[in-house]
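so i finally got all the pieces together for this one. its four components total, 420 residues if u count the protein bits. some of the lines might not be protein, just check the labels. i wanna see the whole assembly predicted at once instead of chain by chain like last time, that was a mess tbh
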Amino acid sequence: MDSKDKRNFEKGEHVETRNAIIKTAHDLFMEYGYRSVSTRQIADLCGLTQPALYHHFTNKKELYIEVIRETIFKTQTAVQRILKRPQSLRERLQQYAYYMMLNHHEDLNQMFHDIEHQLDAASQAQIYQWWMNGYLMPVVAVFEEAAKEGKLQNQYRFGATPIDAAHFLLSLIKSSMEPSKFLKDSSKSRQEAAEEKSHMIVDVLLYGLS
Amino acid sequence: MDSKDKRNFEKGEHVETRNAIIKTAHDLFMEYGYRSVSTRQIADLCGLTQPALYHHFTNKKELYIEVIRETIFKTQTAVQRILKRPQSLRERLQQYAYYMMLNHHEDLNQMFHDIEHQLDAASQAQIYQWWMNGYLMPVVAVFEEAAKEGKLQNQYRFGATPIDAAHFLLSLIKSSMEPSKFLKDSSKSRQEAAEEKSHMIVDVLLYGLS
DNA sequence: CCTACCGATCGGTAGG
DNA sequence: CCTACCGATCGGTAGG
């Protein structure tokens, strides 16, 4: 190969290394939290020395922010596709909940806590902007559409806006993703459990318990 | 004072110091998380040197477990009193949600994450036992009672048990306690906001959005 | 309850 | 991308 091909090849390796770092950092940060994960842990799992990380990212916080950015944008793409399907409100919300349960783990609570306590105000504002566009607004739009079609007539009786509704749904999804320490139900696969839970959550939210 | 009085006095001071440590540690642990809080921070805020903490607690983890134990037991007492009042299901749940919103902050998610990742399995099991008795079962009992009286007829249609219902309620309460980064509503006091949110949550849970 | 101090680990830098 | 290393901070101990 000539020098041009060699450069491209090396650049490709550089990008692959960067992606490996982001994936490893994602898994560790989301499970253990920002402070509990050391740059040496990340580097070791990628087969690198710790100072090598600083060739790809200026510091630990920049790496963390990049992890969050990629996570939010990937989710946004998938979620918008699901919520635009020509199906009923109930079916779309169920599929949305199912997707979130399978593809996110218990990471959202941890992520928000870290953002609030480990990042500066400017980074927080930027991430909340990404979060609103990627996670919240697609769901809000679905509830607004349903409200216009008169399918959420109780909205004003309870004082619950479409934004509240989206928060409720995300809250129920988050709690369903927590490792259920109380009822270990190992008889079902992850997919089966997520499908069952997604149906239950949406039905409770739409129709109530009583 | 004779020597006996002096001993009692000194023992009283010892207890007061211990309580001050627990209160300070509670506030710091719940806000920033177990790993992010150093024993020196706790000691400084109590007017002590860091090694002095080890006169009251064998190590950082023992202190953390004691913080959790006292928190759960105090909540258990208050919650049981509220849920035994001779009022409707809706009213009792509203008052329960209101109490939790005012007296707990955003600490529960942080607490559970720390328990899972920073403590050994034996400590986890002990704390989950406390949690079930103190937090979950009183709410489960209320839903079971309502189910027997036929007030939750949709229970089997959705597959939602009283335990699920209690988890849903706690989940909605937890998310309502999160600092709402999205809708800063500083026009209302904490009490007013908690009252409004507790009503909204219980109504959505009982009657649904549509 | 203090002073003095320990080994371990952290995020990050220098220099190649 | 490596070796070598820095100052800061951590939880915990010794000894009084």
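Residues 38-40, 50-51, 54, 59-60 of chain A lie near DNA strand C (CB under 10 Å from a C1').
Chain A has a mean pLDDT of 88.
anyway lmk what u think
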